[in-house]
Amino acid sequence: MKQILAYHVDASLVGARPGQGPVVQHLSDFDLFDGLTVKLDAKAGGQASIMAARPLVGRPFFRITHHSGDTARWMALSCALDLSDLAHADRLVVSLFASAPETVSVFALLRLYSADGSWSDTSSAQIELRRQPRTHVCPISLDDLPPGALSRANRACLMILVESRDVAIDLSGLEVVAVPSDPVTPSEVILDHLRSAPDVHRVALQVVPPKPLSTHHISLGGTFFVDSDPKSAAAVLTAGPAGELTVAFPESLESSWQSIEFRFAGIADSSGLTALFRVDAQAEYDRQPQATVVVRRYLPDGTWSDSGPAATLALTAQRETGAALVDLYAMLGDARATHDFGVMLFLPRGCTALSLFDAEVFVYDRLGTA
Amino acid sequence: MNSWYFTFEFPPDFGGGLSSYMRIIADTQAHRDTGSMVIFTLTNDQSGLIATRQLARNVTLVSLKPSATTEQGSLGHWVNISRLFERSIDLLMFQMDAGLLPLPMPDYIEFADGFGIGMVTIQQKLCLNSRLADVPIIVNAHTPTYLIDRMNQLPVYQLPRYWTSRMELQALSGADLVIGPSQAILDLVGTELAKSGAAPPRTEVLHNPFPVPLRTKAQVAAVTRDHFYMASRLTHWKGVEGAIRALQRIWAAGHQIPFLIFGEDTHFTVSGGSYCSYIRSKFPAEVASGLIRFMGKQSREAICASAQTAFAQLHPSHFDNFPYSVIEALAEGTLCVAGTNGGIGEITTSGKDIFLTEVRDPDTFAATLLEVMALSEEQRASMTEQAQVTVRAACDPDRYLARKEDIVRSLARTRARSRPGQRKPRTALFPFTSPADPGCHIAARLPEVGPVLSVVVPYFNMGRFIDDTLHSIRRSSRDRLEIIIVNDGSTDAASVARLDRLHADHGLSGCDLRIITTPNRGVANARNTGVKMATAPFVTLLDADDLVAPRYYDTALRILTAYKNVSFVGAWIEDFDRKGRIRNWATWNAEPPLQLIMNQTNCQSLVYKREAYLRDGWHDPELRMFLDDWEGVIALLAGGHRGVMIPEPLFRYRIRPGSIFRSSHNLWDLNYEKITTKHEALFNRWGADVAAFMNANGPNNFYHVAGKHSALRK
Predict the structure, then answer these.
(1) CATH 3.40.50.2000 region(s) of chain B?
(2) What is the pLDDT, as a whole number, of residue B140?
(3) What pLDDT was estimated at residue B419?
(4) d(CA B431, CA B565)
(5) Ranges under pLDDT 70 in chain B
(6) Could you point out which of A205, A265, B181, B554 has its C-alpha 20 to 30 Å from the C-alpha of B506?
(7) Considering its fold, how many domains does chain A have in total?
(8) CB-nearest partner of B100 from A39, A105, A127
(9) Topology (CATH level 3) of domain B438-667
(10) Quick check: A130 and B63 in contact, CB under 8 A?
(11) In CATH, what is the architecture of B227-394?
């Protein structure tokens, strides 16, 4: 876990003795700390006053009192985040050291802005600040972001959104910790076992084309597929010098997706059905190289349906092994006793080439092959 | 144009007609070069309150999770959602104004009618929220859910279903524009609104959009047709039984043609089980012989494939606004048989592109089915080709959005004709669903001099709390207030002594604060005395331990001066104690019948036109300080007045263990009896509704929140 942000009201900001300082009025946005701005709804008449205070016992705090004027009913604490801090994060845990003399509802929101003017949000649930000063935790899941949002982002912003009712919040501090996904590192012993166990299904990258293949839908062995957006130029598969499979994706602003897929058929449903996705790879990219694992269900009527994202894998320019575990039971639905599905890795826009030295997906019952 | 749409169904989380409509609207906007669209929908499939993503360059999806709010438990499910949607509009507009979001202001906002999801937003606009003043709010009448419930034979007086029906009607009545996919639904909604005397809103018919791809004309081939089918959710109102009764005549004549029923099964209240099992039990022989076959929920592609050998798709609904299942079938080239009671006949012609028949008359229905069976393939092809032409012409999505935008522009032109720079409400009358008596229309203005509002504070031994109360009054954004404390013979020495210090301690002059001492005669007398002594044309009550938000009085006075048919104004309540907020309690416009059964107002702290209070709003001392404030509101309703509740918590009600309300519950039944006797004429007029409501929900001490179930379970 990595702390990526921390603001605290410290002793130097308030007087040395218990008590409260002068009240300062603000009719427009103002900085609470360097980098943390209080955003007011000034057009709707929103104003705020701020007072530094130190209780006899406990943390010093800023009392930010919102005045809602005509129709101003929100206030935000806003700060920028470093995108690189989010690259490997599964969740952000926002901790607010705060209280409110009269109850106030707040929630934390992560916003990713893209160069094309679009944005994506994910947020925590709403919580209440009450009289008792305490650490309030607002977890934000990055799973709720659309696939590829992080790779398309050029800046990120964290906001604490305060539903304001002419009330005050007493803020002592704000911290943000980025929580990475639990690493999946199966040992060689486990991998050997999975490769030979009779009740484990495996699709692996084994076939390397003798000469380059270029088409939007590439199939190797009927179980491994490479797909690229028909609006862009087709992906090109070649064999690399070390026997790796290299997939070159065209640079194209039109291209919105590109993927590799490992396909399975006739897999019996079970409550512990799990997939282990393992790649030994390196990638060329011009942005954050976070790839998303998605499960695609193939239905009897010929249609398909995607569930996910199930996991993320960080790809780097150095050759590395990465793995992800997927709860297939949760993704595949109740309708059928056996499933046809693909475990797919969606590669972010900006990933121009992927070299696969080894790649395999195992499907097994989670507790069945210990 | 830039538009914001609010829905409770969006693919892929939900199916159904509304979901189809939203998908088509979004796809159509995505292909446009100009304008933008933001779609707000609901989901449980995310961790947090809000998740936003781009569906296309110019289409944004905002997913909201109602259970991630702090108010789901206190407000009830659909009230919470309606408020969440209103809060989200406000939140986005704040972010746009603060430079946090690169989004243009909407040119219009559209709500689906179902569950009254637009009601809180529309109420905010009617309460003159300046944020919404220039944005037309449209309600699309897909079919109010309470009408569907009624057709499905569900008890519509049961809470919270009854409350969502009121919210639906209030939203329809208060919208700037109601769009109906058919004239049929607009006529039905108009009839419903007219039952309580509500003024009809502005309406326009816009048939739902549906894209029909151009197809090359296929060769007419011989086909062995072998079944009829229907494709709808299995509910009573979709008319499965009617179709079977008609088919029984066909089967009895020797035509053993199966009836395939595609669709998701649902619970049927009348039978207590699933609708499918109800049909099985009613027609066991036909089910056993395979003449009736339940196909379950299947994809449109599977149904279409099956339809290649069908005589026709049947759509025997008791009423259907503008069913997508019929439009889809017509667009795919499938012959349809539908009922005459609904909107599909507004774009089709029976015998030319569809068959329309009396689906509730088995003989007529059966005769139509025989007519269908007798068609040659050439006749069938001609009809299905014509159907595609019809749907393409009537339901073109680009023309749909363009037409809607023309209508929005005409709304804007109407608004612009009012005096520039002045934010006026849509009309000078608030659109109550049951209107005030015209004799209670009181045009009122703020006086040029003197106090604008008299705040009457009954006081009995409240020395511990009065300072907080005065402080909250002094924080009001409204100036020129006159505070009148009526000391109702306090016996506590400290409380009496406190009164002597109030002017000095709060910096109030003798004109700002008047203290009147009377012998102890109870809170009703104290309130009435204060109102009698008031000098302002508007009065408000405030108990000496309660608080008001700074914006309350100003907002209330703006409403009272804008609408001559509004006699009093209140707001949502925040219940609080020493630990902080206990909950928010939603109040609702004071109208019969529900106000006669359960108090839906902050009756202890309303803001009145003083003339209305003096005429009809006196509090009754005979009720011995219990339910007297509620009775005051009922008295106003009996006198023909109506009141508006601002849909946000601007009044704070202190919950104390020793308060009168908490210690006098034994008077509930006695005092309610007195109230109903005193206002016998009013209760008689609404007697049917009152009886049905109480039968469905129990005595009125079993429910307190309109958006939640009664605590009484039969």
Answers:
(1) 2-205, 227-394
(2) 97
(3) 42
(4) 9
(5) 13-14, 216-219, 415-427, 658-665
(6) B554
(7) 2
(8) A39
(9) Spore Coat Polysaccharide Biosynthesis Protein SpsA; Chain A (3.90.550)
(10) no
(11) 3-Layer(aba) Sandwich (3.40)
Q: How far apart are CA A307 and CA A143, in angstroms?
A: 12
Q: What is the pLDDT of residues A126-162, one digit of tens each?
A: 999 999 999 999 999 998 888 778 878 889 999 999 9
B295 interface with A at CB cutoff 8 Å? no
Nearest to B57 by CA among B32, B86, B94, B87: B32
Read off the CATH number of the domain in which A161 is found: 2.60.120.260
> Per the CB < 8 Å rule, is B579 touching A130?
yes
Range of the domain at A50: 2-180
* Token pair for B102: 């690169």
Which residue in this structure is represented by tokens 């109702």?
B488
How high is the pLDDT of residue A370?
A: 39
Bond preceding residue B519 cis, omega within 30 of 0: no
Q: How far apart are CA B58 and CA B368, in angstroms?
A: 47
Asked whether residue A19 falls in the same domain as residue A162, the answer is yes
CATH at A337: 2.60.120
Q: How far is B65 from chain A, CA to nearest CA, in Å?
A: 8
Q: How far apart are CA B145 and CA B162, in angstroms?
A: 10
**CB proximity B299 to A under 8 Å:** yes
Contact (CB, 8 A) for B581 and A103: yes
Contacts of A82 (CB under 8 A, 6+ apart): A4, A156
Q: Which two tokens stand for residue A329?
A: 């039971």
Cross-chain Cβ contact A69/B475 below 8 Å: no
Chain A residue with minimal CA distance to B131? A71
Name which of A28, A29, A37, A41 to mutate to probe chain B: the one with the most chain B Cβ atoms within 10 A of its Cβ: A41
Length of chain B counted residue by residue: 714
Which of A146, A180, A214 represents a domain boundary (last residue)?
Answer: A180
Among the listed residues B307, B408, B392, the one whose alpha carbon sits nearest the alpha carbon of residue B348: B392
Taking the CA of residue B49 and the nearest CA in chain A, the distance in Å comes to 5
Contact B130 A42 (CB under 8 A): no
β pairing state of A19-26 and A30-33: unpaired
ipTM of the complex: 0.91
Task: Provide the number of CB pairs (under 8 Å) joining chain A to chain B.
Answer: 139
Owner of token pair 């301690």: B505
Q: What CA–CA distance (Å, rounded) separates B543 from B651?
A: 11
